[in-house]
Amino acid sequence: MSAYEPSLLNRDEIFIPHPVLVERTFRLGRTISAVRLERGAECSRARLGEIRTLHAGETVEVCGAGYNDKTAKIRCNGEFFFVFKGDLSPDPLH
């Protein structure tokens, strides 16, 4: 079995949404890791970028599906990321 399983990555979700439709807003209860989405050559297409640290207390907006069923697309401080759903605070701000 190969270490890379392409079926686990939904490439259709690797884009920067415009307009942004915010589903929920959360304040992070703890520091988490997130994969940044970098804008590609095409307007809305993106690519997976570096792993960043998002700190406890930062506000994040859930704005789409992740690249698989365990992740979500979020916006934090104007940038888009993929994060694990389990890392999001269970208490929405609104």
Short recap of the structure:
It is built from no helices and six strands. It has 94 residues and is mainly beta.
Task: List strands and helices in order, with pairings.
Blueprint: E1 24-27, E2 32-39, E3 46-54, E4 59-65, E5 71-76, E6 79-84
Antiparallel strand pairs: 1-4, 2-3, 2-6, 4-5, 5-6
What are the defining features of this structure?
six-stranded antiparallel beta sheet; single chain; mainly beta
Describe the model:
The mean pLDDT is 81. This protein has strands at 24-27, 32-39, 46-54, 59-65, 71-76, 79-84. The protein has a six-stranded antiparallel beta sheet, with no helix packed on it. With 94 residues, it is mostly beta strands.
Q: State the share of residues found in helices, binned by percent.
A: under 10%
**Strands in their spatial order, largest beta sheet:** 1-4-5-6-2-3
**Per the principal axes of the C-alpha atoms, what is the gross shape?**
globular
Coarse structural class: mainly beta
